[in-house]
UniProtKB/TrEMBL annotation:
Protein name (Swiss-Prot/TrEMBL): Nuclear transport factor 2 family protein
Coiled-coil spans in chain: none
Top-level taxonomic group: Bacteria
Pfam families: SnoaL_4 (PF13577)
Origin species: Geodermatophilus maliterrae
């Protein structure tokens, strides 16, 4: 698989893992020293959440409060910079909620990611910033 294909797989594995509540799979998309932050609209910076454990606590806590089925749709993936073992990637998120027989767009967002290819050959997030356009 090409580096670009492997990088795109990480973005999509993250989305599907969140939607399917597969925290082991999601954890495997982050490096041990990963950092995640987010901002909702023009609000204050949330985070950073540092280390895989900190990022995963945020994800687990977020899922615990959900009563709907989420679908994270990642599109417009642009690899802005790539070396043999690192990449900078931008993409869009459309966040959909499925509940009571209806699908509703909750928000859109932009992901700004940095990834690293680790010793096992797998690409993982080292930094992920989520810029949500709307609160939900």
């Amino acid at each position: 698989m090409s580096a670009r294909g492997a990088i795109e797989n990480v973005l999509n594995r993250y989305s599907i893992a969140y939607d399917e509540n597969d925290m082991a799979e999601m954890a495997d998309t982050f490096t041990e020293d990963a950092v995640l932050s987010m901002r909702i609209a023009d609000g204050d910076l949330i985070g950073p959440f540092e280390g895989k454990a900190g990022v995963m606590k945020l994800m687990t806590d977020s899922l615990a409060g959900q009563t709907d089925q989420r679908r994270h749709v990642t599109t417009n993936i642009v690899v802005r910079k790539e070396t043999d073992d690192s990449a900078v990637v931008s993409s869009y998120l459309t966040l959909i909620s499925v509940k009571d027989g209806a699908a509703t767009v909750l928000s859109t967002a932009r992901y700004e990611d940095e990834l690293r290819r680790e010793d096992d050959g797998a690409w993982r997030f080292t930094k992920r910033h989520i810029q949500l356009d709307l609160p939900y």
